[in-house]
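Researcher: Let's try something more involved. This one mixes different molecule types, so please make sure each is placed in the same coordinate frame as the others.
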Amino acid sequence: MSVHFTFDGHPLSAPEGSTIAAGLLANGIVSWRNTRRYGRPRGVFCGIGACYDCLVDVNSATAVRACMTRLAESDEVRHAD
Amino acid sequence: MRTDLLVVGAGPAGMAAALAAADHGVDVSVVDSYPDIGGQYFRRGPGATYLPRRLARIGTHPRIALRCGTSVWLAHRDSDGDFHCGLSGADRITAQRIVLATGATELALPFPGWDLPGVITAGAAQALLKGHGVAVGRRIVVAGTGPFLLPVAAALRHRVVAVLDANRPITPGIVRYPGRIGIAAGYLARLAGRMRFRQAVIECRGDDRVRVARVAKVDPDWRPIPGTVREIAVDSVCVSYGFVPVLDLARSLGCRISAGHVWHDDAGRTSVPGVFVAGEATGIGGWQRAEAEGRRAGLAAAGVAPPALRPDHFADLLARLYPVRPGWIDWQRGDTIICRCEEVPYSTVEDAIGRGLHTARAVRAGTRCGMGYCQGRVCGPILQQLLPGDGDGLHGRPILQPTALADVAGLNRSDQAAGRS
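Model: All components are placed in one shared frame. Result:
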């Protein structure tokens, strides 16, 4: 079973149960945030919820850890700044 | 909400603790910040064997309430000895006893370009593969030190171009663990000549993701040997330099910390009455030891005398075999980011220490290193190694996790609802 979601408006899908990070990586997307000071691209780093590098915006929530949050059907995932 | 026993962490240690206590009639609540039980070792994934039956029964045990996807962000012990914890989602729980099974995080050492997308910890690569069947890249270098490099590289072996351990771990002591040697030999056979010792990734280059790993031979102190640098085209680098016990909650509760882990007696009791500890928070020892310690802590928390554990010196042996050597400082450039959250460069940290800021907290206050989202979880252990002397680390945070103000405000609401405003 697949879960359908969007990233910055683009429709994507991933296996059900995927975290946001796994779903984005499975679609070839490696970064979804830019740092505040130097604008550097960031994605997954520690993968277990410690480093907060993989923050992403989902629906009405901001700064969600992509590695700790499962995708839900019709999630609107957005690049975080 | 009230519970007899709160278990923090649903990995092998936490699950075993909860089951041991619940089997003796104790009502247990288990919280874990990940949406599933299992911890880092047991991950529900596509086609993967998941929990062994002895642990899987945690899902249906009538005395165990599982609360996954829940973080403890505040904890204190009142004068009656009860523990009050703030949970994510504007919730709270009161417990008579606590088992800390908070596990460990990976130690990643910095180098120029370590914050490029595609550079991830070996643990992250394994979690993505085990939990989701997602490989992080097509041309991967695995680098760092320690036995954990091997299973990660072996699992990704069709995509791994090199595995680099900066140490050269050869010791007569290892022959006391023939089983472990056999496991390592199996991994090495699958990696077919791609394993190198005394080599390290000293820089990564790229644009929107990592493209090139610069690899050097290193001397026994990990200083790059001039003239040995080569470039490897990659789309991912997986790094691991060991593990660091997660101690925030233990510190917040006032548990004594000794040699980087939670001090405990031979029943898993910490220095604070009513607080028990198990698993990697007691020192890095792997999942089997974690499970055994969990059972011990759960029994002790239930008031049952636990059986003695066989002493396991393997963890001590690993720490001796795979130390972090000081030459990694030579990999740094002035503009290498040390604090990934606040983007504090190495030169700023070096200047601060040179100006006489000799504790991690002073450097943090002077440079913002460790002041960002992760609260020094990544750069704290790095900063500690840059400082003269042992020091005290970046800790003492009253709020243990980045927490929504609505959750903090929620504590007040639940106080009012209970007539305690």
